[in-house]
Each structure stands twice: as structure tokens, then as C-alpha cells.
Design goal:
This protein is an alpha+beta fold and 587 residues long. It folds into 3 domains: 165 residues, UraD-like (Orthogonal Bundle), CATH 1.10.3330.10; 293 residues, 3-Layer(aba) Sandwich (Aminopeptidase), CATH 3.40.630.10; 114 residues, Alpha-Beta Plaits. It has 20 helices and 16 strands. Strands 1, 2, 3, 4, 5, 6, 14, 15 and 16 form a 9-stranded mixed sheet that branches. Strands 7, 9, 10, 12 and 13 form a 5-stranded antiparallel sheet that branches. Helix 3 packs across helix 4. It is globular and about 75 Å long. The relative contact order is 0.11. Belongs to the peptidase M20 family.
Length: 587
């Protein structure tokens, strides 16, 4: 029989400990420490308290937890929960080759790290990973440094406990599961050249892109949207109408195009979450005192054409007509691609929204970084989208013989670049929340026995405010000048992009904060280092974002990008809270 939170909060200490037994194996000290914080406001609150009890324990206690964990498919004694979890992943039905591989991995892992391999084999949806996925993850993590693997194993213990907790309290994340399934179904569509390799790539107005738009449109209709359509740039637009036609509108959404060899949640999660909210409102027969406009933006990544934020930009009147003449790698112009997709480029100016009729823009997005994963938090409120400036730089020195030129006589462009790269790392770290990246680096015509006479590289500098970004850029460029003068080098510099920071609107940020707090979760605030559609809408209306934790250390723009159905469920509940909060404010 499933427990209830009310029962746990009211239970005698020994009974309460017994109710939580098995979440982290047989380690009653974890429950005892967490129960000191009763009453729990929610299961999410309880999960956070249990996690904190483990994380605040000493290294010996945390190591003992890992060492008590059973090996995978090893025939070692397992409790009922562990046996069921491994069975869901099919580990009881391994082929002889798979079993031999797992046994070898168990031996190698134990010898390297001193504790068994820990993996939440029920996976991000809780339904079970495949045997091959388990073996692949086992193989990958065997190469981790010991300190990193210790922390990853702890994270997996927490994920196992999270799933067991929801089972014990009969709290299946049904909405989160549906959204997770939507992500899988939408990812079936991928561009040629990538689909054959099992990779997800959906670029602007390809057949896969149009198939995604059609599927999103159908799902919106199924969810109960009153109006659904595809606009002149390919945005999928769904509107859930208020009772009054004159009511203002809240806009939300994100993009459904992808980078090449992408993950399944970047952008798309921000479409699915409000879609699910509309479905819940429709099922309840509930109307809001404002229109809710959910938009699947057709393009944000700039992969097929050099036109980022094309979808959201069109809504603020920032679609540049010269983009239509750009050609992709196959020589197809954007104008022709639109015509082939049945879109009328002449209608693009009509897409511009009147900001006076909008309450604002909110966006849910996977974090795309490791912060929430490492902190063990499912959600965070975004304080600002970082401002960014990018440069292309070329340093010129003198190419000369590597064997005959003394070290103190060299004018080496590559070592100057390396010196600058280290400075960028140190200077950005000094701010605490700035970042600097030298993502492209090339020695043209380089040879193993030639001192580099030229080096070309990129600089990407980001910070939560324009002033902080500009201070970082000034220091980096001053260091570039100083390095080149000291080493007798020349350089050229081209600024290729400058984007203003987009601080969250205080009132909207506070709505997200209240929504997260209402779930019993700590309210964590953080800037977004990545650009989002919200930064375009920020130019004409107030905006604020909610981040959702990514699994696999928060990796993004990568096939391993993932999130859990549990975290998705919390994002939906937070969004519904925000909608309700706004409804009270606008009545």
C-alpha cells in the first residue's frame, strides 16, 4: 500500500524511518537526519532533504553507501527494489556475450574506483534503460577521473532514491511521462544524412522540419487549443483563448529546430510544457482571463542559413529581407525553401506583434549546463540571459625553422595565442559568472618543424550584464595588445557579433520564484549563459525564464542531452502555478 505525505509527517519517528527504508539501501541514518525537517511540504521537499542528508555526511559514510550497492548482473545478493530495477533494464536476460562484458566491466570498475558501478537503470523516464544503453554508459564512465566518478555515482544513488520515493508514494509523473514521450516521437524526424546514422538534426524547412511542424500542430489541436496554425516563417502557433476577445495575451514557447547531432530537449521542452498545461486546463474546462499563445519557433539555431532567431525575430519585426537571398550548402535560397514549404514570404511583415497587447513572454528551457545537476535541483529561475560579444582574431609572427631558431628569438603566433587563452580563462573566472571561450583555433599551413607564423582563433565572451561583458572584453583585448607588443607580433581583430544582456523582468521573475517555492523546492537563481528566444522577445516585452535540470551532467547540443520525467512534471506544475498567479493578478 502506498504511503502518503500526511502519514509520513504524522508518523512516530521509528515508523517514519521504516516508511523510508530502502530508498538508499538499508541506511536508516539518512531518513533519521531528513526527518528532522518535518513537516515536508511536498515529495520534492522530502527528496531534497534526503539528498542533503547524504551530501552533508562525511566521505566515509558516502563511500560506504556506494560499496553497499549491488553490482549489475553479477548474481550478488540484491534487495527486491534493486532486482526489479535491473529486471526492467533486461539485465536478467543478458546474452552470454553481454553477461561476459558486464562482468569484465564490473571487475575493471571495482579495481579502478573501489566501489561497484552505480547506475539508475530505470532511466530518465523510469521505465528502464536498454541493456546496450547500460553497457555504453558503463564503458563511458570507466574512463572518468576518480573524483568525478565518485560524484557521478552519488548522483546516480540520488536518482535511484528519487524513483523509489515516487513509487512508495504512488506519485507517477504522468504528465512528465507524456512530455518525455512527445520528445521521443518528435525526434523520429531527422534530416537526411543524419537520420540514417540515428542522429537528430532538424534544420530550417527541411522535410523533417516540416514534419515536426505538422506533428506539433496536431498535438496542439489534441490538447485543446482553440486556434492552431503555421505562420509565414514556419512558426507553429497555438492559442488558448480567454472568454473575452479583448483580453491581453501571454506568449510562451521555444524553438523546434536543432543543431546537428542534437539532443531531444533543447528548445522543444519549452513547447511541450505549456502544451501540457493547456491540455490540463482544457480537461478541467478552465479558462484564463488572458489568451495564452504557445509558439514553436521555426528557427533559432542558425544551422541551415546564417539567420539565428529567425522565428522569434519575425514576431518583433526583426526579419531581415536580405536573409531571403541566402543560400544553403546545396545552393537553395531561403526564399525558395519557403516557397517549397508553402510559406508566403510576402506575409512575414504581418507577423509583427503589438507589444501593447501582450502581458509578457515566459520560456521554459533545459539548463544546458551542469549547475543544477551538480546542485541536485530540478528547477531554477533565470535572472538574466548573458550578453555576448564575439571576435575573429589573427595573430601574425614569423614562420621559421623549429630546429635552428633559439627560443628567445622566436615570434611565435601560436604560443601568443596560448598565452591569451590562459588569460581569458583566468580573467573570466575572476568574475565568478562570466565565461570566455576560444572555440576555434587554427595554425594555417602549420608544420611539425616550423615555428607558427600565423594563428587564427575565435573569442566568445559572455556575462550577465552588458557592463560586465564590456569590462571583460576590454581586459582581454588589452592583454592581446600587450602580448603582441611584448612578443613582437601583429594582430587583426574583427567583431562579428554583439548581443545585449536580457535581464529578467523583476515581476515575472518573482512569479517564477513563487511558483517554484510553492512546490516545496529551494528557489535557486542563476544567469543563462546560452542565448534563447526570450532574449529576442525581451526587446519589446517583459520576459523571464525557468530552467529545468539536465541529466548526464547537464550536457547539451549532444545526443546524451536528457532530462527526467520527474523534473518535467515539476516544470509543468510550476508553469500551472504561474498561470494561476497571473490569473489572479489580471482579474
Amino acid at each position: 500500500m502506498a504511503h502518503t505525505l500526511a502519514q509520513l509527517n504524522a508518523a512516530a519517528p521509528a515508523d517514519a524511518v521504516a516508511m523510508l527504508d530502502g530508498l538508499y539501501g538499508h541506511a536508516p541514518w539518512i531518513a533519521e537526519r531528513a526527518l528532522g525537517h518535518r513537516p515536508f511540504r511536498s515529495l520534492a521537499d522530502l527528496a531534497q532533504r534526503l539528498r542533503r542528508a547524504v551530501n552533508e555526511a562525511d566521505a566515509d559514510a558516502r563511500t560506504a553507501l556506494l560499496r553497499a550497492h549491488p553490482e549489475l548482473a553479477a548474481g550478488t545478493p540484491r534487495n527486491a527494489d534493486s532486482a526489479r530495477e535491473q529486471d526492467l533494464a533486461g539485465l536478467a536476460a543478458c546474452t552470454p556475450a553481454e553477461l561476459a562484458r558486464l562482468q569484465a566491466l564490473n571487475a575493471d570498475y571495482g579495481a579502478r574506483f573501489g566501489f561497484p558501478f552505480v547506475l539508475a537503470v530505470r532511466g530518465p523516464r523510469g521505465a528502464g534503460m536498454t541493456r546496450q544503453q547500460v553497457i555504453d554508459e558503463f564503458t563511458r564512465r570507466l574512463d572518468n577521473p576518480p573524483d568525478l566518478e565518485f560524484e557521478e555515482a552519488q548522483q546516480q544513488l540520488h536518482r535511484i532514491a528519487e524513483i523509489r520515493l515516487r513509487d512508495s508514494f504512488d506519485a507517477e509523473p504522468a504528465i512528465g511521462n507524456d512530455i518525455w514521450d512527445w520528445g521521443e516521437q518528435l525526434a523520429v524526424h531527422s534530416d537526411p544524412g543524419y537520420a540514417e546514422k540515428g542522429q537528430l538534426t532538424v534544420t530550417y524547412l527541411t522535410a523533417a522540419h516540416r514534419a515536426c511542424a505538422a506533428l506539433l500542430s496536431q498535438w496542439m489541436r489534441d490538447c485543446g487549443f482553440d486556434e492552431v496554425g503555421i505562420d509565414a516563417v514556419g512558426n507553429v502557433v497555438g492559442r488558448y483563448l480567454a472568454a473575452s476577445a479583448d483580453a491581453p495575451t501571454l506568449m510562451t514557447g521555444s524553438h523546434y529546430d536543432t543543431v546537428r547531432n542534437a539532443g531531444k530537449y533543447d528548445g522543444r521542452l519549452g513547447i511541450f510544457v505549456p502544451m501540457a498545461c493547456v491540455r490540463e486546463l482544457h480537461r478541467q474546462g478552465k479558462r484564463l482571463p488572458y489568451h495564452l499563445e504557445v509558439i514553436g519557433f521555426a528557427e533559432e539555431e542558425g544551422q541551415r542559413y546564417r539567420a539565428t532567431f529567425l522565428g522569434s525575430g519575425a514576431l518583433i519585426g526583426d526579419f531581415k529581407p536580405q536573409w531571403l537571398d541566402q543560400q544553403d550548402a546545396d545552393g537553395v535560397s531561403m526564399r525558395d525553401a519557403m516557397a517549397q514549404a508553402g510559406l508566403r514570404s510576402a506575409d512575414i511583415p504581418k507577423l509583427k506583434r503589438d507589444p501593447a497587447r501582450y502581458l509578457g513572454f515566459v520560456e521554459v528551457h533545459i539548463e544546458q549546463g551542469p549547475v543544477l545537476y551538480e546542485m541536485g535541483l530540478p528547477l531554477a529561475v533565470v535572472t538574466s540571459i548573458n550578453g555576448c560579444v564575439r571576435y575573429q582574431v589573427r595573430i601574425n609572427g614569423l614562420a621559421c625553422h623549429a630546429g635552428t631558431t633559439p627560443m628567445n628569438r622566436r615570434r611565435d603566433a601560436a604560443t601568443a595565442t596560448a598565452e591569451l587563452a590562459l588569460y581569458v580563462e583566468q580573467r573570466a573566472a575572476r568574475d565568478g559568472d562570466s565565461v570566455g571561450t576560444m572555440g576555434m583555433l587554427e595554425v594555417p599551413g602549420g608544420s611539425i618543424n616550423v615555428v607558427p607564423g600565423e594563428c587564427r582563433f575565435s573569442l566568445d565572451l559572455r556575462a550577465p550584464s552588458d557592463a560586465q561583458r564590456d569590462a571583460l572584453a576590454r581586459d582581454v583585448l588589452a592583454e592581446l595588445e600587450a602580448i603582441c607588443q611584448r612578443r613582437g607580433l601583429r594582430y587583426t581583430l574583427e567583431e562579428t557579433m554583439r548581443a545585449a544582456a536580457a535581464p529578467s523582468d523583476p515581476a515575472w521573475q518573482q512569479r517564477w520564484e513563487r511558483a517554484v517555492d510553492a512546490l516545496g523546492l529551494p528557489v535557486h537563481r542563476m544567469p543563462s549563459g546560452a542565448g534563447h528566444d526570450a532574449m529576442k522577445l525581451h526587446e519589446v516585452m517583459p520576459q523571464a525564464m525557468l530552467f529545468v535540470r539536465g541529466q548526464n551532467s547537464g550536457i547539451s547540443h549532444n545526443p546524451r542531452e536528457s532530462t527526467s520525467s520527474d523534473d518535467i512534471q515539476l516544470a509543468v506544475l510550476a508553469f500551472l502555478r504561474l498561470l494561476d498567479d497571473l490569473a489572479h493578478d489580471t482579474q
